[in-house]
Amino acid sequence: MFKYILKKEFLLIFRNLHALLVLFVMPSVFIIIMSLALKNTYSNSIDVKFEVLLTSENKSKDIEDLLKKLQNNNFFNISYSQKSSDDKTILYSKNYDFLIKIPASYLKDIQNNKDINVDVFSTADMSIQNINLLKSQISSNISKQLIKNLLIQLDVNTQETKDFNKSIKHHYVSKENSFNITSVQQSVPAWLIFSMFFILIPISNTFINEKNFGTLNRIKSINVSMLPILFGKIVPYYVINLFQVLFMILIGIYLMPILGADSLQIKGNIFLIFLLSSLVSLSAISFALVIANIANKSEDATTIGGISNIILAALGGIMVPKFIMPQSMQELSELSPMSWALDSFLEVFVKGGTFVDIKEYILKLTLFAIICFIISYILLIKKGSK
Amino acid sequence: MAIKIKALNKSYDNSKVLENLNLEIKEGEIFGLLGPNGAGKTTLISILNYLEKKDSGQIKIFGKTYEKNKNYIQSISSYVPQSYAFYPDLTAYENLEFFAALYKIKSSSMKDAINSSIEMTALEKYRNKQAKTFSGGLKRRLNIAIGLLNNPKILYLDEPTVGIDPQSRKYILDIIKNINKDKKTTIIYTSHYMDEIEYLCDEIAILDKAYIIKKDSKENLINENALVTIYCENEEIKINTQNGYEELLNTFEKIKQENKKIKKINYGNKSLEEMFLKITKQDLRD
Q: What is the ipTM of this complex?
């Protein structure tokens, strides 16, 4: 009997190509867009540097020195203007990202213990990280100039004050092998999990059609257990979820480098990836079965399912990385199964973690899948037997 | 006796749907269940098919107690719902194959069971076409074909001809008559179409507001009011003969004296529909 239940489910899935296509196209597009969009977040340089206009009342030697030093970085393109120091609208009229207003005699003023004001203006949408980056560039270069002048006064041979920032190099460390974290490494697992949970839409649609067409009642009137009917729904969608995992990994490895992003590196154990994918899939399918049992119409399932998926994704760090969330939100995100899935995937994909590192997430996902399955089974049996 | 129901009660949220319902359905007959919307027909069929629980009462099916013989009763029954309860994206054959598997028909005899159902419902030409491409009549036939797979002793047909053209209806009614004739299947048939019930059924029960308000043979129900209608030239005279024939005889005498010509005489209700409207009081139901 189970063979025919599976045959029916597979036929229904493969004859609904639109839904199938969405499950593969949607996450692929997300992975491509988010990997390319976040590329600079994980990189030591950016493709398009910020345009910065430095202004002062005249171009003194100190200003020239500062300009030269500020030019030497991976993030800012510095130009100079003697005019428009009070005209902040230049940010928009000339497409600058930053405007720096600095007194031409700033170095002498500092050395004479006078207060100086350096004003930095930016466009309204500038992130605080980028503003702080520019401020630290300015202050470190001024400090270097001061130290150099001091050493000259003391008649010490300085040559060039050493840029210690260049000596400080950051390395991401994985547990097994050394490799760099990239936006692809972050985006593939995140959007893969999101798409696996989106299996809710086709599952609930077929299930609700069965309810509304009276097919489910007809099945109940036959002397047949509901367990194989539910298991029959799990197996085909589990297979699809695994194909999604494979497809997204292949996109990360082969397509992303062609599009100018980094290639996905998998250093974690393949068995662990398979185990995690299976558990995430079973959690997603069981959750979908609960929603399908609760909803009475396809529209309800799409609304309830779509909204709950988006909330779980937002909470779980899929849309916004958890590390930029405040502490309270990070604690709240621990309630989302997508968070458990993402943390465990990142542990394996990015950090090369082992079973021990993800055992807590495995337990949580397993329990979530079992509880959802039991709830959906009870709802299925109870509904109609009023 | 195929079905014996004693003092059956069912209510939803304090609203009685079936109250003290007693019913006997003989083996091998086509039993018509009539009633306006909300009368309790579908609830009764749902209870008999274990889709809803009864509050109280006794049910025996082929002598077996309802509660203790669920597996047996389900194995000899088949329920054809009002809706198209199959998968539109599957072909007729794939649908039948799936339901045959649920009926636990062995692989060796599955093909025969499917072919027999296809033959009885004349779906041979359409066996490999997706059900979503079918006309309303073909969909109704497939719905019935699925119900025949387990060769049931009792077949429940819940308004099986809703929304189809008269030709398809006639075709389906003949199929149902043939199933009853060839396989001696007891058929419980609900419908809003009185002409169908009149055409098909041997016994009829009328359900209204949770009660069976009438149960009798088709002939008795139609004739029971003993209404004689005499159609003369430009005149229609109705006489109730329930309390004797004196008035009828006087009327004939009068017609003779006046030298009127009798065109037609009808005995009983004109149709089942007339009788149905009469006893359910004709008021509009939700």
A: 0.79
